[in-house]
Amino acid sequence: MRVVIVGAGEVGSSIAASLAGSHEVVVVDVDPERTEELTYEHDVLTVEGDGASLDTLEAADVAKADIVIASTDDDETNLAICGTAKTASDAFTIARVQNRAYLQTWRRSHGVFGVDFMVCTDLLTAQSIVRIVGLPTARDVDPFADGRVQMAEFEVVEGSPIAGQTVQEADRFDALTFAAVIREGEVEIASGDTRIVAGDEVVVIGRPDSVEAFAAAVVPEGGTGDVDGVVIIGGSSVGALTAQLLSERGFSPRLIEQNPERARELAENLSKATVLEHDATDADFLEREHIGEAGLLVAALESDERNLLVSLLAKRLGVERTVAIVDNPAYVPLFEAVGVDIAINPREVTAEEITRFTRERRMENVAIVEPGAAEVLEVEVDEESILAGRTIRDAAADLPDGVVVGAITRNGTFVTPRGDTVVEVGDHVVAFVREDALDAVTAKL
Predict the structure, then answer these.
(1) pTM
(2) For 129, phi and psi rounded to 5 degrees?
């Protein structure tokens, strides 16, 4: 597949790196240093120029493109790129935007702006935050099979009841499959005798109620995992969207915003949230408002440094879990190293979603667990699938190492996969796949 990516910033570069190994990738950018750097780092073609210009897109041979991805930092430019690409090709166009108003317009009239698929950075970030609410120690959560299946990645911390147990000892849930254990970046397919230690990340796939039960079992001794109290620091677009989505799920979050006009606007628009006007770095104020009793605090200020400060202050006051928005991706490991529970970079979330969508064109759904290490795939079994009409144990003999069938749904009903489970045509299978087995598995499933 030929993919033209316009914009070689963090999002575009990340997408190019993910797709270069299996697709013909062309990257367009106005910055010659960026294009030169990508040429040396990855097996991609580069074109220097304005991606909204028809001449530049023709230089990138856009007429032969299967997908055009507009990933610059300017919404209007991305819309112009997609519109221009449509005049010169039949490519499927993907636009990245930050302004949710464009997404709402596009959803009302698919194809408007010349865009076939649109991703909104702020909304994706808010959704990533909301998915982990209610699942203590979860680092990532993705739904499959219309919400009947969940994949969740949990961090096992010191004091967790399952730390030191084998997978067999920890596996006490009927509708749950242990897929993998990630230790120091290395992915190990879980077996019964795999021992779980503090610092590991455990990937499970199962029915949502079983995933929730497992989440409670991972909570360290003395922890409650209570997320009844959610505090959002910052009335940015991400902060406001997070409050809105939480409200829709039945939560009553508190949102702290320093700017009086913005606080008033948020109070008018977020009827189920409590909006407080104050500087959230004021420790005395946080103590008076009992912020330390919150189960989860989201730092959504428009400054990495202030988000770090607020998160660490919240931990000191007693908040159980903190989530910080981090604009600079290089800071993500630093935030987590110094005590922030989860650091989310919006550009990385966006790049993953766009990359995921390019894979979804042959799969029902895809979640990237560890970039470059593992993915979770959902596929509808047809007559040509290696799984059709066979037990999982029998089919596994013809699949490469690094594959775990985590869940099956059949006619809308969840089926817990076991070795003697027979897979039927029409089943939806959710499988964990290590990266080195991905090509072989997608060809056989």
Answers:
(1) 0.86
(2) -65, -50
